[in-house]
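Protein data:
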Amino acid sequence: MNNQAKAAQANRIVESSPFYVENEAAYQRWRAAKLERYPVSADELVVPVDNPLLFTEAEAEAVLNVCRKTNVAIYAGRARREDREIPRAVGERFGLHRLDSNMLADDDGITSLQVVPGKSQRGYIPYSSKRLLWHTDGYYNTSEARIRAFVLHCVSPAAEGGENSLLDHEIAYILMRDANPDYIKALMAPDVMTIPANTEAGVESRPAVTGPVFSVDPVGANLHMRYTARTRSIEWKRDTATREAVQFLENLLGGESSYMFRHTMTVGQGLICNNVLHNRTAFADDMGRGIARLVYRARYYDRIRGTDLNEVFTLSPSLSHRGRGGVGNES
C-alpha cells in the first residue's frame, strides 16, 4: 500500500470514529453505551489479585472488564511484593510490549518514582514530593511515540498524602463535547498545543513538540489525549476558540465531578490504564520511621489489548440511550 492509500485509509478510520466531531450519530450511540452503568466510586475500579506477576484468567478478565468501561483499573495484590518486574509482567499480561524507555527511566526501562533531589532540582516534579497537576503521560512526545498506556505499581506509599485523582479522558471528551462541540474542534487542531524544547546547560535533550490535545488514533479509531496543566510547560494557540476551550477544560479539572475517582495506592496495589488524565497530591515521607514513597512506572506505546473501540462497543443504531447524562446531569 502506497502512502496515498495509507493516508486515505487512515482518514476513513478517523471519520468512522464517534470521536470525529462531524459523526454525530455514531457519537450519540457510543456516548449512550459509555455512560450506561458507569462506575460511581473508585472502589468499583479495584480488582483483588493473588499474584500480580501471574494473573489468573478470572483476575485478568475482571481487570479487562473495568478497563473496557473506564480505561483504568486498580489491581490489589494480597501479598507484599517489591519485585520491579511486576509492572513489566502486568503490562505483558495485557498486551503492552513496546516500553517507552525515556531518558529518566532506569536501565531496564522501568521508572522508579521517588524523591530524587538531583532530578527534582532540575524541575522534574515526579521525582519530588510536590503535587502533580492534571496531565496525561508523555504529553511532550511526538505522535509517532504517543503513550497509549501505562502501569504503576506501589512498593511503598508515603507516610502522608500521595493521593491520585483519575479522570477517564473519554469522559472529559463527553463533558466538553456536550457543552460545546466547538471546544473539541479547537482542541483537535494540529497546532493547538506546543510543548517547548527541553534544554539543560545549553543542550537540547528534546525538541519542541506541537500537536492536538484530542486526536483520533488511526490505530483502532481510539481517542487519544495529550495534556498538561503546567503553564510553564505549554504554549497554546492564540485564538478565541482555543482560549475558551482551554478555560473550560481547566474549570472542569479544577472543579468537582462525580466522574473523578480518588485513590491512594497502598502496598501491593497497582494501576493500569489507557493513559487517562491523572494528578497526585503532595506527600510527605518519614525517613525516621523508614517510610518513603516508591512507585514503579512502565509507559507503553501500545494500548491495553482488548480495549480498542471496536472491541468494546457495537456502534449500531439499536443501542439504548440510557446513561448518567452530560455536563448538566451528573449524579
